[in-house]
């Protein structure tokens, strides 16, 4: 339906164009007033309806007054850019009876449509890359399983052989072999879970004690902490903090956050490098805090923090934090970060507890 005053009959051509959704206004050339507008015009400018003076119209669309005063020219429609920011593409035609027909097109909507097209293209590219990463992960998992299993068997055999020959292993030697076997098996579990992750994003739900998980995660990286010359500050509650989730997934998240903290310390070493790992119970949730006093994060890095394939590290792939957040969200949790008052940053991981706990905080 076209909108027009009862006393005004718009030209049939105008009505036809308006029916196709064009934003049109018919201006009386003598009275210099809007005679008729299409529905699409009113959707863009509800206040510039029939009866609006050309002066008021020109104030709302800077540049229109000069175009109208310039005359019909060669009789062909003139293309205009109207508005203070030239946000309107316009065509102005002089009709045989001296009236003016103005057609508007919102350039901002064109920009939004182009942005949507670019976003769709980027999403398609991202999906293609994710599929490629999934295929690579499956291939790598298949190829790495055998050498990892062989390394684990060789280490176990070496430990047994040394025990038989020497009767009893030196404590440091036994600890080193046990840690080596533990690291190899941890790598095997991660590869197995990544392989499953490419096929199914559903975790295996079991009862996981977060305090015990943080202790084992810290033990897995004690060699890296020592190599960095950092001090590891553990603040864990005495009581268990049980959650329902996948232990390997959650441990992978914690280990990745700790490694990021150690990388931040290496990038800009402080006088006393420190990594903090703490667990706090707040009502029905448990919060894990992984902090460091390293280089911190800039505003640009913050904007791309969880964006896949965007990394602030020269050799980083940019998928670590993205996978971590996916793992956390699969456990109905949240992952975010904050800047420390002094140096460095803290990553926060919140997970729902299995059972109700006292409201007071444990540290």
Task: Give a structural overview.
- The chain has 363 residues and is of the alpha+beta class.
- It has two domains: 12-110, Beta-Lactamase, CATH 3.30.450; 205-363, Heat Shock Protein 90 (2-Layer Sandwich), CATH 3.30.565.
- Helix content is 47%, strand content 20%.
- It is built from eleven helices and twelve strands.
- The strands form three sheets. Strands 2-1-5-4-3 form a five-stranded antiparallel sheet, sandwiched between helices. A five-stranded mixed sheet has the order 7-9-10-12-11. It has a two-stranded antiparallel ribbon with strand order 6-8.
Features:
single chain, 363 residues, alpha+beta, Beta-Lactamase, Heat Shock Protein 90, 2 domains, 5-stranded antiparallel β-sheet, 5-stranded mixed β-sheet, 11 helices, 12 strands, 20% strand, disordered N terminus, disordered C terminus
